[in-house]
Amino acid sequence: MAITTTKSAFRKGLADAAPFVLVIIPFASLFGILATEAGLNVFETLAFSVVVIAGAAQFTALQLMQEHAPTAIVLASALAVNLRMAMYSASLTPYIGSAPLWQRALAAYLTVDQSYVCAMAQYEKQPDMTIPQRMAYFFGCVTPIVPLWYLFTLVGAMVGAQIPESWALDFALPITFLAMIAPMFRTPAHVVAALVASVAGLLTAGVPYSLGLIIAGLAGMMAGAQTELWLERRQPQHPEQDAV
């Protein structure tokens, strides 16, 4: 259904992001539980989610903190995991870069994997959306995601060890990322990047302080970039014909 008003754009964003609620709740709860088990109090755990608002980076930092990694390694690893946000921002800029400053600032804070995936898919599908409609859609996407991330981080931190291990809430982490990245495999370069990163991650699993994650990410990005260059070179060239 084509978006014609800002209200319909907001409702569409809300509906498109709603399925992620099924994994955000256990995902956030798991972070709250693990953070308190790692020694953070309830306030510190909630502040972690509010300030950072990046699940993958938070879990990475938390794991390294539990391994007593040096602070520099914790910060560098979390930053490396979150570098994808810079790429998200760069690809969103052509669509919402002319929005008012306060909206862009708020969108920068609220750019998470789910809002980015939904927004880019919608913007590409309906390129004639106005800037207000695009912003309304974006904010609709984060409405069911961000408040629940805060709330269930708090719930997990308060409940803590009372949740039995048999509940296996950690299933939410891989399912969330699989649900987000699967629709993005639209080109051979995407597939190559994912495969190389996966293999490199397995081969470097024993690297101290989880630095294998950074190595795998860099390997995947380089492989994807080289694949794109190789495909571009193989495309037939069509030199422009001289005007008569």
Automatic annotation (TrEMBL):
It is found in: Cell membrane. Keywords: Cell membrane, Membrane, Transmembrane, Transmembrane helix, Transport. InterPro entries: Brnchd-chn_aa_trnsp_permease. The keyword Membrane applies. It is a multi-pass membrane protein. The chain crosses the membrane at residues 20-40, 46-65, 135-155, 167-185, 191-224. One of its GO terms (biological process) is L-valine transmembrane transport. Its main location: membrane. GO terms for cellular component: plasma membrane. Belongs to the AzlC family. This is Inner membrane protein YgaZ.
